[in-house]
Structures are given as structure tokens and as C-alpha cells.
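Hey, can you fold this one?
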Amino acid sequence: MKYPGFDTVLDSCLRIRPGEEVLLLTDEGTDAQVVAGLVDGVSSRRAVPVIAAMRMPFIPGAEPPAAVAAALLSAGAAIELTSLFIGSSRARQRASAAGVRYLAMPGVELGTFRSGGPLTVDFDSQRAVAVKVGTAWDRGSGFRLTSPAGTDLRGSIENRAGRVLDGIARADGQYMAPPDIEAGTAPVEETTSGVAVIDGDLLFMGRGPLPEPVVMHFEDGRMVGVEGTHRNRLLEMIARCDDDRMSNLAEVSMGLNPLGTICGVPMETESALGTAHIALGNSIAYGGTVDATAHLDCVMAAATLEIDGEVVISDGELTE
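Sure. Predicted structure:
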């Protein structure tokens, strides 16, 4: 079986430069075949692969060990392959500020690089779609998110910019998260109310997809209740974070990768065209003001986004 996603990541997403050091961040849960494929690919491009192994992060956004943080600062590029997402860490932010190109790809597996898989998409052409949705967020003052499963959330996005993730980190200091292609924002704090029915996955909170939906209730921008057989996946992670601010509705975003599917790989699930995801906790990267301990993404299928009463995208179909 061929895995052309390795070429896409190294050439289209990161554009490896001859002679540079490329740091691969790993832990005991990282797929060894992914590491081997990237080491071979980096070496064949006359760059230098460096593997930084650490213990599995305790929560999403955890800081890597000091030695790994120091190594990040001296790399030309870095690829995050840890079991949990750490791309929001201060170590990563300092590396980006220093010019390191960074791909957050936690939890990817060899199959994620498959022919026809989400890492073989034409990221450059899909960028236009992501920018269109991001511009709609930019211009809006209020949003409504719905789904056939029962999601109905409304809130303010007044003066909140759209954040576009297009998977491309070829310029110094760029940060992206392929296979994820998305556009979203942080709703204004204390404005969103309604229900979110999570029938895709609770990312990095047990192996997905979810066998049954988890239903989250929001009032004034905070989660006030959660139902469902698998709700403890979410509640246990929130408890692990030990931060009262984790109930904050931090993000609403639309997945835009046409080759993504809802599956056992969190980053592919989050990427899939037609999905939407909301997040709890830290909203800083999305233009919000809540600097909570972690950022927890929760994915729903077949979502419709309305901004100021106009449908922007419905189950992956953009309006003209």
C-alpha cells in the first residue's frame, strides 16, 4: 500500500529545506511507522530528522519538557506527533515567534497518510474555501449552529475575526495542523446559549467515533450540563484540567477537508467536510479572552452555519 500523504506533508504543507533540522515530537503512543516514514522523507530531502521523545502529555496543551522546548527553538521546522495535542503550549508559541515552521499532527496513524486520505488533499486549492468561510465569520455579528441531531447554538461574534487553518506552514513562524482545514472563531464570552449534540467525537478523550451522542447544554457562554452514556469522557478530562474556566465555550469552527472522515483519528475527524466542532476552555488562539488550562474539541456531523441569518455552509455545501 502506498502512503503519498508523506510527500504532501513534507512538500506541500511544510516545504522541507535542505540542511535544516526537522524536529519530530513523539511519545509512547506515537505510531512508529509514521515516525519511520517521516524520517525517511526528511532524509531524502537532504534535511536532518531529529526525534524528541517524551512522556505522554497529561492534558491537551501541556508543556513539553524543558529540553524539548529548547530543541524546538533551534529547529527549522517541527512536526507534533504526540498522543495529545500540545500545539497551544507556550513552548510552541515561543518556537513560532522564533520562526520555526510547525505542524500539529497529534494522534495521526499510518493510515492517515493513505492514498485518497485527508493528507493527499490539494491544500492550496482548498485554502480559498477556508478563506471564504473565514471572511463570513469576520463580517458577522451573530451566529447560529444547527445539526439534524439536535444542535442549536446561538451567540455573538461581534468584532471577532475568523481564524483560518489551511494546513500550509511554508513561511517562517507559520503554525498549521494538517489534515485539518477549518475556519472558525471564538464567540464573544457570555453570549452563547443552546444545545450542542456531539455525534462525531470528543477529541483525545477516548477512541472515537462516539458510539452514542453526548449532549452539551450552554447558558451565557458556559457549559451548564452534559448528558449521554459517554459524558464521563468529557467530564473526566475537564476534571483532569482542574480549571473552572474549562466550561467556557471557546470556539466554533467548520471542518473543510473533502477527503476527511469521522474515524478513530482525531485530526481527521476534526478536518472532515460537513462537520463542525465546538471547544471548551482556552479561546486565546481564536481571538477570545479566556486563558484556560486546555482546549477541548468536540465534533458534530452534518452541521449548518448561519451568520446574521444567512446560511454560509450546510453539511459541507457552501452558499454562493
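The radius of gyration is 18 Å. Let me know if you want another pass with a different chain boundary.
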